[in-house]
Amino acid sequence: MPTNSNKEREDSKRNRANIRKAVARIIRKEMRAPTVQELVEATGLSAKTVAQHLDRVKLGDGEPNVFQALTPDVVYSLYQRATGYSHKAEKILTVSMGAGAGSAVERHEYTEHYPPDPTAAKLFMQLVEGYREKTETKHDVPGGFTFNYQSPPPIADAGN
Known about the structure:
The chain is 41% helix and 22% strand.
């Protein structure tokens, strides 16, 4: 065990970062939450190390955010919504049999298509990739004057 506690923390941070990247990669590729064994193979860490770090791995940039409480199933659903998806569906129709002959109920199967949702894509990028819309730049001026610049929010289209 290393005697330097800072080195220990850096190793721990690096392991969690590797696990976080592997989780994101497997979710994008396989569309499901990874198993511990898959994370072991992807990171080269031991199963015990992966299991210990897995509870503390935060998707995103590591700063607290509301998305970190999401379960893998929710992350997967968000990914599907962000990239668009299709599923089988069924319509139930009442079809007229003709004048005075009544009607019949028919079932028709079809494929329902959902286009990619930009809002879900933005949420997924914030959650998994750590994307941030707001940037902050700190400027130090000689003589002790310091100011922080925050980029303004995007201007909404006036036509909407």
